Amino acid sequence: MASSKRLVLLILFLLPALGFAQNDIRAFESYNKGVSFLKIDEVDSAYSCFAKAILLKPDLSRAYYNLAVTCYRKEDYRGSISNINRYLETNQSGMNYYLKARAYHNLNEPDSALVLYHNSLLLNPKLADAYMYMGVIYYEKGDYDNSLLYLNEAVRLDKTKWYYFYNRGCAYSKKSQYSNAVEDFSAALELNPNNVEVISDLGYCYYKLEDNRTAIRTLKKALEIDPLHTRSCNNLGLVFYKIDNYLEANLRFTEGLKLDHSNTALLNNRGVTFFKLESFDRAIQDFNAVLDITPTDGTTLLNRGNVKEYLLDTEGACQDWLKALYFGIDESLVPLKICNP
Questions:
Q1: Model confidence over 19-52: pLDDT tens digits?
Q2: Which residue, 239, 320, 309, is CA-closest to 287?
Q3: Which pTM value belongs to this model?
Q4: How many domains does the chain have?
Q5: pLDDT at residue 20, as a whole number
Q6: How far apart are CA 305 and CA 299, in angstroms?
Q7: Residue 280: which of 259, 258, 307, 255 has the closest Cα?
Q8: Where are the alpha helices (DSSP H) in the chain?
Q9: Comparing C-alpha atoms, which of 214, 225, 147, 241 is closest to residue 192?
C-alpha cells in the first residue's frame, strides 16, 4: 500500500498587524514569519515562530493549527494532536479532524484514526484522502471488503491520484480479483509510469492470471528500472517456476537473496527449486535458514518434511509435518498416512 506522511492541504493565513496592542503586533509578525518558513519547509524555524506567537497572544487560534501542521511535519504527532485540539475548540472543520486522524494513524492507533476520519467526512464529504486512508486502515486489518468500499469512494472523488488506484488494486489482489487489480495498476501507471512497486504488482497479477509471457515482460521491466527490487526478483522467479523453468527460477531467487540474504520468502522459494533440481542438501540448507529466522513457518516445515521423506528420512519428515500442522498448515496438505501406516 502507498501512503504519504506529508500534508499538502494547509491553512497558511497571513494576518494584518495594524490596530492592535504591541504584543498583538509582535504575535502577528511572528505568526507571519512562521507561515513564510512553513511554505519553504523550514519547520524548526516555523515551529519557533508559531510558538512565540502563541506565547504573545494565546487566543491566536490559527497559530495552533499551523503549529499542529509543523509538529506533524517534524513527526511529533503527539504535539500535533495537542495543538489541533486547541484549534478544534473554536474551529470545527473536516480538515482539522483529518489532520488529527493522520497523526493518530502515524502513531499506529488505527481505531482512533478511523473515528476521526469519519468525523472529518461528516463535515466535509469530499475529503478524498480521508476515504483513501480509511481504505488503507481496513486493508491493514485484513478487511478487504471495507477497504474497497472506501477506496472506491476515493477514486470516485478524485481520479488524478495514482496511489488511489494502486491501493485499490492491492485490495482487489488480496481478494484474488486479479483482472480488476490489473485495471487499477494500469491506471496507476498512466499517472506514475515508472513506479516499480506498481509494475511489480502488475506483473504478479498477470502471473496469477496465467498470462506468463506478459508477467515476465512486466517484471523484467521493473528490474530494468530498479535492479535492486527484491520483490520483482521473487515474482519473476515464481513465474519461471510456474512454467517449469526451475533453473531460471532458482537464478532469480538467488539474485533477490544477493540483495536481501535473510528474506524468508526468497529462501523458501529457492529451496523448493533446489528440490526440483535434485539438489537436496542445498534445499535443506535454505529451509533451515528460514526456520532459523522464523521457527514457526509452517510452509517451510512442510517443504523440509517433503525433502526428508524423499530422502527416506521418514522420522524426520514426520516431525516436520507434525510441527507444520501445529503451526497452521492445512491437514489435507500433509501426508500423515506415511507417519501412521
A1: 556 778 888 899 999 999 999 999 999 999 999 9
A2: 320
A3: 0.84
A4: 1
A5: 53
A6: 10
A7: 307
A8: 22-39, 43-56, 61-73, 77-88, 94-106, 110-123, 128-140, 144-157, 162-174, 178-191, 196-208, 212-225, 230-242, 246-259, 264-276, 280-293, 298-310, 314-326
A9: 225
Report the alpha-carbon angle 177-179-180, nearest 5: 70
Whole-angstrom distance, CA of residue 148 vs CA of residue 146: 5
Instruction: Give the model's pLDDT for residue 6.
Output: 47
Which cell is 253 given? 531467487
Is there a domain that residue 68 lies in?
yes
Q: CB of 124 within 8 A of CB of 93? A: yes
The 10 Å Cβ neighbour count of residue 192 is: 16
How far apart (Å, rounded) are the C-alpha atoms in residues 178 and 183?
A: 9
Indicate which CATH number applies to the domain containing 52: 1.25.40.10
| Cell numbers given for 217 | 515482460
Q: Name which of 105-114, 262-271, 327-336 the model is least confident about.
A: 327-336
pLDDT at 8: 44
How confident is the model at residue 314, as a pLDDT?
A: 93
Does residue 46 form part of some domain?
A: yes
Distance CA 156, CA 298 (A): 41
Around 297, how many Cα atoms within 13 Å sit in the side-chain half-sphere?
21
Q: What percent of the chain has pLDDT over 90?
A: 82
Asked if 96 and 121 touch (Cβ cutoff 8 Å), the reply is no
Provide the domain limits for residue 22.
Answer: 1-91
**C-beta of residue 279 within 8 angstroms of C-beta of residue 251:** no
What is the per-residue pLDDT across 66-85, written as a single tens digit (0 to 9) for each?
Answer: 999 999 999 999 999 999 99
As a whole number of angstroms, the distance between CA 130 and CA 158 comes to 12
Neighbours of 189 (CB within 10 A): 18
Is residue 59 in some structural domain? yes
CA distances from 12 to 32, 34, 112, 130 (A): 9, 9, 27, 21
